[in-house]
Specification:
alpha/beta; Rossmann fold; 2 domains; 14 helices
Length: about 325
């Protein structure tokens, strides 16, 4: 079981290395949200351009020296890959990363730029895991999961610790959900520090395994995801699922059209350069479904990242 003590320990490990990202406001977006106050936690300004650095650095700093010396291995579509590559560089470890062939080119280049060795594979979770297993068999090392891991979840939970200090008296927090590391960490931190805060997940309709899991009351695997939000394609983690099941009030699913519109609004009106996965949380905050809920005035919206291929913008 992950506790607030684990998240506080993670905060101490990453202090002075990870950025304490700002919280931004935008009156235009407040108006579009029905007059609510939206407080945007800007993890697109985190190192590697995503919240993932928090968990990756916490995971590596938690490893014994001999494990680090053997190197680390992971698979990721991009943001965790970059985060692990930079964390390994900072910790003096070798990083080997499996990425799907269709991962954004800007993310592949960044992973290599941080010094990691990249292996490409077919764009399925099974192919990613097989490739990672083959690397581990050949080179050894420690596998660092992208989300379903105590140290990773604890590191991601530091997002909520900061947000609740920077924007006190929130009524609700919305965070995107893919594998669930960010959302489950946010849930655990918020329940411990501000138990009255209502917790919501934002998910693309084309990759809605979290919504389907909540509806059925059991973990439903992701099948054939199809969404512009490439960071939210993976299935919920087994460690993440029970936390989300027990603490998230509602999963708000949003269309790709709504995600693109929210992303463009953030770029043009709020001057927040975010990627589609982050825009899913904004789209949820602006949705009719969320606006219809009563008793919510101040909302924390976690902007998970900003790694965008600017040569292939959706507009």
């Amino acid at each position: 079981m992950i506790t607030i003590a684990d998240i506080e320990a993670a905060a101490a490990r990453i202090a002075g290395v990870a950025h304490r990202t700002p919280v931004a406001r935008c009156r235009t977006l407040d108006a579009l949200a029905g007059g609510r106050e939206l407080h945007f936690k800007c993890e697109q300004l985190q190192r590697v351009g995503a919240f993932k650095f928090r968990g990756a650095f916490n995971a590596l700093r938690s490893l014994p020296r001999e494990a680090l010396a053997a190197g680390v291995v992971t698979h990721s579509s991009g943001n965790h890959a970059q985060a692990l590559a930079l964390a390994a560089q900072l910790c003096g470890a070798t990083a080997r990363v499996v990425m799907p062939r269709d991962a954004k080119e800007v993310k592949k280049q960044a992973v290599r730029g941080y010094g990691a060795e990249v292996t490409l594979c077919e764009p399925t979770l099974d192919a990613r895991q097989r490739a990672a297993d083959a690397i581990l068999a050949e080179h050894g090392g420690r596998f660092v999961p992208p989300y379903d891991d105590v140290a990773i979840i604890s590191g991601q939970g530091t997002v909520a610790l900061e947000l609740l200090e920077q924007a006190p008296a929130l009524d609700a927090i919305i965070a995107p959900v893919g594998g669930g590391g960010l959302l489950s960490g946010v849930c655990l931190a918020a329940r411990a520090r501000a138990p009255h805060v209502r917790l919501f997940a934002a998910e693309p309709r084309g990759a809605d395994d979290c919504a389907r899991s909540m509806a059925r009351g059991e973990l439903v695997p992701q099948t054939a995801p199809d969404t512009i939000a490439d960071g939210l394609l993976t299935s919920l983690g087994e460690l993440c699922w029970p936390v989300i099941r027990d603490h998230v009030e509602r999963v708000i699913t949003v269309s790709d059209e709504a995600i693109i519109a929210a992303m463009r609004l953030c770029w043009t009106r709020a001057k927040l350069l975010i990627e589609p996965s982050a825009a899913s949380a904004v789209a949820a905050a602006l949705s009719e479904e969320f606006r219809a809920l009563s008793g919510i005035e101040r909302v924390g919206v976690v902007l998970s990242g900003g790694n965008v291929d600017i040569d292939a913008l959706p507009w």
